[in-house]
Amino acid sequence: MQYLRFIAVAGITVFLFSCKAKNVSPSDSAKDEDGYVSLYNGKDMANWNIMCRDKAPGLAEKVFSAGDNGEMHVYKNFPNGDRRGTGKNGTHCMFFTKEKYSRYSFKFEYKWGDKVFNNYDKFQYDAGMYFHVFDVNIWPKGLEYQVRYDDIRNENHTGCVWNSGASFDWYGDHSEANPKLRTYLSKEDGGVAQEHRGGERPIKMRSTMRLMDNGTNAR
Question: Where does the record place Basic and acidic residues bias (predicted)?
């Protein structure tokens, strides 16, 4: 079974969680001008399943909180520096859709906050979106669109794909001698097949992200 899910490691605000798919048929009032349907109700996480490393009661509700304008805040109610450098990552949480979707386009917008938490010293501002997960866990196996900014080196990793045990074909340019630094380039545009490996695959993206699926079922 495959899942569509979002992870949270650093403070972040998420806007416009929406999906457009063949098997979604809400009322016209629930759609935006492009036909996308909001998967977040703007109030709570009732229509998502949540998994946190720490099973403490009430933790999920504290990690994910609603804003005043339909946005979702992550770690808003935690003190700055919470668990930083302690190696304790119980607040690592993930949420995923309860419904299945196929032939869909999924998009969201995000904005980083000012606070830093738990693994900041290693991964700085770090979150992401997993899709086609085949091992539900923290962390799962599947593919992740990274949402990450390294403010120490001023490197934006947002949009890069992180492979966690999946098998897929990847094409990239050869402008870099190091294969790990080769940016995605489609086969039609001259991209060359890269080695199959785990870890990060560079892609140039922005703060609005869209995932397209042309046939597989996902959550």
Answer: 191-203
DSSP state of 187: G
- C-beta of residue 102 within 8 angstroms of C-beta of residue 186: no
**Do residues 75 and 82 lie in contact, with contact meaning Cβ atoms separated by under 8 Å?**
yes
Q: What was the pLDDT predicted at 6?
A: 54
Boundaries of every domain in the chain:
4-159+204-218
Q: What is the largest CA-CA distance in the chain?
A: 52
- Would you say 71 and 65 are in contact if contact means Cβ atoms under 8 Å apart? no
Closest CA relative to residue 164, chosen from 130, 118, 193, 210: 130
CA geometry: angle 15, 28, 38, nearest 5 deg: 20
Residues sharing a CB contact under 8 Å with residue 78, sequence separation 6 or more, in sequence order: 11, 62, 63, 91, 115, 117
Render pLDDT for 148-161 as a digit per residue (tens, 0 to 9): 888 888 888 888 88
Task: In whole angstroms, give the CA distance from residue 30 to residue 119.
Answer: 37
E strand or H helix at 131: strand 125-135
Q: Are strands 72-74 and 12-21 parallel, antiparallel or unpaired?
A: antiparallel
Type of residue found at 38: S
